[in-house]
Amino acid sequence: MQRLIVNPKQLKADQIWLTVDQQHYLYRVLRLGVGDRFLALDGQGHQWVAALTATVGVATVTGADEQPAVTRLTGTTPTVTLAVALPKGSGFDDIVRQATELGVTVLQPLITERTLQRPSANKLERWRRIAAEATEQSERRLMPAVKAPVGWSQYLQQANSGQRWLCVARRTAPHLLTLAQQNSTQEMLIATGPEGGWADAEINAAVEAGFQLASLGSHILRAVTAPLAALAIVMAVADQDR
Amino acid sequence: MQRLIVNPKQLKADQIWLTVDQQHYLYRVLRLGVGDRFLALDGQGHQWVAALTATVGVATVTGADEQPAVTRLTGTTPTVTLAVALPKGSGFDDIVRQATELGVTVLQPLITERTLQRPSANKLERWRRIAAEATEQSERRLMPAVKAPVGWSQYLQQANSGQRWLCVARRTAPHLLTLAQQNSTQEMLIATGPEGGWADAEINAAVEAGFQLASLGSHILRAVTAPLAALAIVMAVADQDR
Fold it and tell me: In angstroms, rounded to a whole number, what is the distance separating the alpha carbons of residues B147 and B111?
């Protein structure tokens, strides 16, 4: 069944009021008609089976949750925040899409000393749209939260709890896989740097704030590849433990 | 120092005869001039420090290997083949680039029952160029081999030794991380499917040929994301073991 992310506010009694974009997607792209069903998700773990009605723009909830409860929603669910120095160009679009598939919980774009991109305001909206689409396509129930970009020093003040790893290249550090295997907390944060790498002062500030340095192996990964490799490793350990 | 992949045939005595593309790259893009040095790699594990001479298109080898021997070149080096059902569009370009960064040894594009793309002849040349560039940028000494696309059944006849894993979704299979940790061979092959998934007959044929089914976790990954997640996991285990 086709999946569609809806805002909880769109749900009134047992009716879903579709946005113009959603109408376009259901009627034009998917070519659904009256009576056709789809799966509506609020991106926060709830989902409903809905059917299009004769009234344009309105669907009716025809059934509750059709799918089994997802392990990810239980008390032992790991939450993974990926804090990523914005790569140049449209690189962050790919990161949002692929990190959503891989099961990230929060995506935090970072402005660091060597970050070249200064994102425009409409980028955030674009990233959130990509996250919603990828959530639908990857059959996830939870949509990751994409945060507004912040500077590194400001972020260090916010990100002050849980297990936090800073991925570094060309430095001696334990492999992220080893650290993830030793980790027993459910709240993890992984930070990856920009094309030019972290500045020494940025690394020092992170260590002082409680971050642990982590290696992604002997190769030099680009700023768009490192966050995905890191996430794949951490999620594999979490999936294995379940 | 800037890195450049050269064909061993370009090396005559202690001189490197540069191609037109390489001249463009060194003179125009990097703006190097007479006497400026760069690192020439043959992609097979050898490298030389070279300097541009006053003769256009000719560089002189000024030193032998400047860098320490790379662990990857020792007898215990794992070799990882990634056999990937060709995704639609230019998705394989990204796979070549990112898999090279992550340390793949061989990239084998596959034509499967549900593969939509029928690659044109010049695609292979393009992929090899991307692999060379990514080798330079990621500071690898070994360039991965990018093979010409083959059909799945034909490939199963060739790929008949070593540890071979077939990544499947929506099936019960051990996690690839678990399998990689149990693996004691140095020769590994990971196959990932197309957008529409493997056909049942393709999975059965692979199992009959000695492939082991592997899971990449509870999420549904796209055809461009699955090979990179799989490679990140296997390389992390290999890096950790060293």
Answer: 12
Domains annotated for chain A, with CATH where assigned, are 3-63 (2.40.240.20), 73-241 (3.40.1280.10)
Encoding tokens for residue B18?
Answer: 């540069």
- B82's CB contacts (< 8 A; 6+ apart) are B95, B99, B104, B106, B107, B108, B189, B190, B192, B227, B230, B231
d(CA B139, CA A198): 18
Q: Do the chains contact at A218 and B239, CB–CB below 8 Å? A: yes
CA distances from A47 to A39, A139, A140, A141, B107 (A): 7, 11, 11, 8, 40
ipTM for the predicted complex comes to: 0.77
Q: What is the DSSP letter of A56?
A: T
- Candidates A101, A178, A219; nearest CB to B222: A101
- Report the predicted TM-score, pTM, of the whole model to 2 decimal places: 0.78
Distance from CA of A51 to the nearest CA of B (A): 25
CA pair distance A11, A4, nearest whole angstrom: 13
Is residue B81 scored above 90 in pLDDT? yes
